[in-house]
Amino acid sequence: MSTTIAVILMLAVVAYAVFGGADFGAGFWDLIAGGPEGGSRPRGVIERAIGPVWEANHVWLIFIFVILWTSFPEAYASITLTLYVPLAIAALGIVFRGASFAFRKVVVTTRYQRMFGGLFAISSVLVPYCMGAIVGGVASGEVPAGGEAGDPVDSWINPTSIISGVLAIAVIAYLSAVYLVWDARHQGDAEMVEYFRRRALIAAIVVAVLAVVGLIVLHSEASYVFDGLKTRGLALVIATVVCGAGALFLLVRGAPRGARLLGMLAVASLVASWGAAQWPYLLPESLTVSDAAAPSGTLQAVLVAVVAAVVIVLPGFGLLFLLHQRDLLPEEGVEDVADQASGSLPS
Question: Cys-Cys crosslink for 86: which of 130, 153, 167, 199, Cβ 3.0 to 4.6 Å?
């Protein structure tokens, strides 16, 4: 039972990386898009691409925390007691990012648009860095077992955490650029297609370089995870390389739909390889999945709740993304078709 819940938890982490990560990556491109005039077109593509769905993606993060604290309370206690600083920064970043994205749409003066836009973009980079640093702290054994607190500084400011944080930013930037190529093409903007295609290629090269550096760091700082990547996670590592190379090939050939799918699979495989590499530990070499698991009755209740969530929530997600991809959702602040037909204003 504990293995099943652990797999579900890993799948939720992958989903958050693939969907939420793309939104954070869009914020990275927003940050470096340029001034108000030069950056207006790419920012317009970004806003149209993530506007209707950006809030929904944090459901995965809530799901991850709920599963972790109910099913593996000892691991949850150790992680939160030790890594509370990056967790708090990430939480504040998510709040500031959401508020800034919403306010930037409604303020009319350039000064406030820049202020809220800058806060949105900076938060979009800070949050994934903290998430990556947390993963690095766990992988390098900086989080003690037993629900005890480790060092609140060294646990996330160390070589593994730093390279993991930087790699997280590069990965979500790559994934977002791949998505935005497709979105720009869907919007009929050939110039922006080329704009984001070039950035996706550059980001892919940066990811590859950082991944090599990360392996070197893991070899010296997190040997158990490094060895796991060569054994338990090897198939997923190979899948990451193959899918990533395939996505680049399709981008060069001008096939953004296939590139988007392969880019998504590459990132999903990369994240899953971390989980496979440190198996069967939640906290490498100190706390296994089975030892950290809650009583069987709790795990059964969690499994029932997960099934209910799949039945109730996932169809809504699917419908939301389907309507978004087919341009059937009204833009924020715009009167929709039904309201126009009835002659009434939206509430």
Answer: 130
Alpha helix locations (H) across the chain? 2-15, 21-31, 40-50, 59-71, 73-82, 84-106, 110-139, 159-186, 190-221, 223-230, 234-253, 256-277, 289-292, 296-325, 337-342
* Inside any domain, residue 68: yes
Rg (CA), the chain: 21
Q: What is the pLDDT of residue 346?
A: 45
Query: How far is it, in rounded angstroms, from Cα 130 to Cα 169?
Result: 10
pTM tops 0.70, yes or no: yes
Pairwise CA distance, residues 46 & 214, whole Å:
30
Q: Tell me the pLDDT band of 328, cut-offs 50, 70 and 90.
A: low
Contacts of 54 (CB under 8 A, 6+ apart): 23, 98, 101
Specify the number of domains making up the chain: 1
Domain that holds residue 242: 2-331
Q: Is 65 helix (H, G, I), strand (E, B) or coil?
A: helix
How much is the pLDDT for 342?
47
Q: Are 170 and 206 in contact (CB under 8 A)?
A: yes
248, part of any domain = yes
308, exposed or middle or buried, with CB in 10 Å at 0-12, 13-18, 19+? exposed
**Other CB atoms within 10 Å distance of the CB of residue 320:** 14
Instruction: Confirm whether 145 is domain-assigned.
Output: yes
Give per-residue pLDDT as tens, 91-106: 998 888 878 877 776 6
Lowest mean pLDDT across 77-81, 177-181, 236-240: 177-181
- Strands 287-288 and 281-283 turn out to be antiparallel
**Among residues 212, 130, 128, which one has the least CA distance to residue 170?**
128
Give me the pLDDT at residue 260, please.
Answer: 85
Does the pLDDT of residue 44 top 70, yes or no? yes
Tell me the two tokens of residue 125.
Answer: 């980079």
